[in-house]
Amino acid sequence: SAMRDERIKKTKTVCTYCGVGCSFDVWTKDRKILKVEPQAEAPANGISTCVKGKFGWDFVNSEERLTKPLIREGEAFREAEWEEALDLITRKFTEMKKAHGPDSMAFISSSKCTNEESYLMQKLARGVIGTNNVDNCSRYCQTPATMGLFRTVGHGGDSGSITDIEKAELVIIVGSNTSESHPVLATRVKRSHKLNGQKLIVADLRKHEMADRSDLFIQPAPGSDIVWLSAVTKYILDQGWEDESFLNNRVNGLDDYIASLETFTMDYAEEATGIKKELLIKIAEEIHSSKTVSILWAMGVTQHLGGSDTSTAISNLLLITGNYGKPGAGSYPLRGHNNVQGASDFGSMPDRFPGYEKVTDDAVRSKYEQRWGVKIPAEPGLNNHEMISAVHDGHLKAMYLKGEDMGLVDSNINHVHAAFEKLDFFVVQDIFLSRTAEFADVVLPAAPSLEKEGTFTNTERRVQRLYQALEPLGDSKPDWEIIMDIANGLGAGWSYSHPSEIMAEAASLSPLYAGVSYELLEGYKSLQWPVAKDGTDTPLLFIDEFPFPDGKARLFPVVWTKPLQFEEQYDIHVNNGRLLEHFHEGNMTYKSEGITSKTPNVFLEVSPELAKERGIENGTLVRLTSPYGNVKVECLITDRVRGKEVYLPMNDTGDGAINYLTSSHADKDTDTPAYKEVSAKMEILRAK
Ligand code: SF4
After folding, report:
1. Most CB within 10 Å of its CB: which of 107, 217, 242, 592?
2. Protein residue with its CA nearest to atom 1 in ligand 1
3. Domains and CATH numbers, the chain
4. Global pTM value
């Protein structure tokens, strides 16, 4: 058989694309990736994968991979050896810290990297440099969901497992293009809906596949989800349909919460959302008649001025109806990247240590100070949104960023690029020369998931191991080794020989991972946090209590923050999101032949009404201009969108990149950019 060829190797890995966390065997022969073979024992996906997990691996052997450190010389880069690059970084970081203090520097971790690498990035920032200026890109997507859950139920993750979603009697999907963004998870919902009589309600601007399949689909006005969610909750309370014993025994704050709902009448909701109240009442009735309800949401909810509040409203609704702590029920913020959950879990956040312990908590801080032998600032650091402002203000002078294309994925990128240009010293670590890396002083070549060991945490809080299938290409190295080299250049004396030792350290410090070890994660084994000291994990949260001192959840009153208003000339609402075939801006998927041939270019979805009004055909080239910048893109006419709402997939690295249009306005509680609140004017540049 093929396996008799000794060069053929089979290695268990975890998908490096989305947060579903599919795991599978990858077959390689030398550097050639032969195939991806899912295994029945894979906990999140069994024998399923989507097109990205199956065919999206060519990027690993792309000719564009960085294989040597690069050092800027004037306008260009020259190749360098590691020693020279690391010496330069040591010298610059040391000078910077001396001249301007630790808080003049900032660190950005990556949700593409492993848990262990996220842990080390925050340890470098806090334990070696002495600043809490560390963050990761969950700030661009899911931090508002985490905030909404922290406020109400105390853990910032999916409350159950993907299998719980399958068991739900009713699934509600809000602002998530699940079948394209989380394909394998969507397949499970589709199956339950088709075979088990599961009901499906979808709320979205755009009529995507899940909307087509749903029993009830609503298209609320942009940025108004919080209104219908709160009105439905109020209606349930007014009818006396709340879960009284759950509220009495397990939840605080009911009276204040009821008082806060006063304005959210059905009439008000109809007016604000444009949804007929009969439909909203139908939703309330469906929730009432279902024993278990799971609510799934994503960036259509979070990327707004009130993203945290809308996430909170979802959790409030689940609390009122007793939909926590039982199989089939709960909150499911669907995590975007493969390890966006883990990047935050392991402490790359300006206000949290690993396991979400607070930086402002003296006892927690002193635990870390004693272990690391340093002093850690008592105040939270800058988040990545604040970092950009601080560079413009002149307070922040150096950045070390790994595995993230901030210059493309942050909002208002013209403003971000101007900040990069102002930095005194900028280190970017990546597998490609990204748009961000073009601004760097030093670029360090990192190794992707197939070339290293470590763990990822998927959307259901599941920690899974990946094993090394290939050697790092050229002189590239795993991120954890590079961070250790930098720390040691600064005198840290770290001596990790394998990521398992980093995990052991994190487990010994953070109660959330107390019992996590590589032994318990061997092969296809996995653990869902919190993991007790004896290794017992938690597939379903909140069965007996919520993680607050009195064990009770908290209803948290919210208000509606109306979406950004634009001048009349910006009359087109620009929704944005993912496509099945590509991942985010497409840095990795555009380098995979099998994928690019299917969907080579980005396009703008335009409604038949708007096309008719403006004389647009398929292929017409238009320019969209917002107050912040412009994009050029070809049109595709489709009834997935309606009226003056257009949809621009985010998979473009050039003239069509959505973030030329977005603003610096952000969620008021977490600073997550309000990517979904964009309006623009549209001009035709070239007929078809
Ligand atoms: Fe990878 Fe997500 Fe596709 Fe699974 S569903 S194969 S994790 S991209």
Report:
1. 107
2. 53
3. 2-61 (2.20.25.90), 70-137+338-525 (3.40.50.740), 143-333 (3.40.228.10), 572-686 (2.40.40.20)
4. 0.90
